[in-house]
């Protein structure tokens, strides 16, 4: 079950805010009855009409995108900065990112118009493993990395256990490349975790999302997920079988 305004927005008819206005104005019917209450939940078998016209659901589409740095993980931006959907001019469906990567972070991001799929992947209990490669300031000691592996307390709570691996160190520049695997999605989580142990992130990239990688893609490029990949992701969201 999903909120009515969300279903209308995901159909590609209009934005969620406009859908809310239409509901309040009495322009939306569910199973023949006018619904004016925001937050009303509907299922796949409910008949929805907007301005007396039956709502048709878009065919679901799924994309893997290599987000460059300096791009917003959103469909619009009030400061007119570049957003991820700017890289999909040929796509007519109303796609949006699954979760987000912050402005200065590059790497693997999924986009879809399938709300159920996106919600399953982003649910705190179901989120799949995400592998990041971070260039950090300083040379982290093993004991500090173990703090991340055990879970570290941030201002919005303690993180789940992570997995870390030092890939390289540069004693001359006093920096290191560290791979870190997490399955949560707190805002700027990886950066804040390294800040907490005194090693600020200089550069960050998400290399993997579950079993998916950026293989064959350059920054700004994308590809459609195969039906098998979509099926695998749905399974991972439920079972968490890829967890380290």
From TrEMBL:
- RNA-binding S4 domain span: 2-65
**RNA-binding found in the keyword field:** yes
Pfam families reported for this sequence: PseudoU_synth_2, S4
Gene Ontology annotations for the cellular component aspect, listed alphabetically: cytosol
Gene Ontology MF, one: rRNA pseudouridine synthase activity
For this protein, the record's InterPro entries field holds: PsdUridine_s_RsuA/RluB/E/F_cat, PsdUridine_synth_cat_dom_sf, PsdUridine_synth_RsuA/RluA, PsdUridine_synth_RsuA/RluB/E/F, PsdUridine_synth_RsuA/RluB_CS, RsuA_PseudoU_synthase, S4_RNA-bd, S4_RNA-bd_sf
Which top class of enzyme applies to this chain? isomerase
Which terms under GO biological process does the entry name? enzyme-directed rRNA pseudouridine synthesis
Q: Which PROSITE patterns match?
A: PSI_RSU, S4
Sorted keywords for this record are: Isomerase, RNA-binding
Give the EC number(s) under which this enzyme is classified: 5.4.99.-
| Top-level lineage group | Bacteria
Q: Which family does it belong to?
A: Belongs to the pseudouridine synthase RsuA family.
Q: What is the designated name of this protein? A: Pseudouridine synthase
Q: Which organism is it from?
A: Peribacillus glennii
């Amino acid at each position: 079950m999903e909120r009515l305004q969300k279903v209308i927005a995901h159909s590609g008819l209009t934005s969620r805010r406009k859908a809310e206005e239409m509901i309040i104005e009495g322009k939306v019917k569910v199973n023949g009855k006018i619904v004016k209450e925001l937050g009303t939940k509907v299922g796949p078998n409910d008949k929805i009409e907007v301005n007396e016209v039956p709502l048709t659901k878009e065919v679901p589409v799924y994309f893997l995108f290599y987000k460059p740095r300096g791009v917003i993980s959103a469909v619009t931006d009030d400061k007119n900065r570049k957003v991820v959907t700017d890289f999909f001019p040929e796509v007519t469906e109303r796609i949006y990112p699954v979760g987000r990567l912050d402005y200065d972070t590059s790497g693997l991001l999924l986009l879809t118009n399938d709300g159920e799929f996106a919600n399953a992947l982003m649910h705190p209990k179901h989120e799949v493993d995400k592998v990041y490669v971070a260039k950090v300031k300083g040379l982290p000691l093993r004991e500090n990395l173990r703090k991340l592996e055990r879970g570290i307390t941030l201002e919005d709570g303690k993180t789940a256990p992570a997995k870390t691996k030092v890939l390289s160190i540069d004693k001359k520049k006093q920096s290191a490349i560290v791979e870190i695997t997490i399955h949560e999605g707190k805002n700027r989580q990886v950066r804040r975790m390294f800040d907490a142990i005194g090693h600020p992130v200089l550069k960050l990239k998400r290399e993997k999302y579950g079993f998916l990688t950026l293989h064959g893609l350059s920054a700004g490029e994308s590809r459609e997920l195969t039906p098998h990949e979509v099926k695998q992701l749905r399974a991972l969201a439920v079972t968490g079988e890829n967890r380290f």
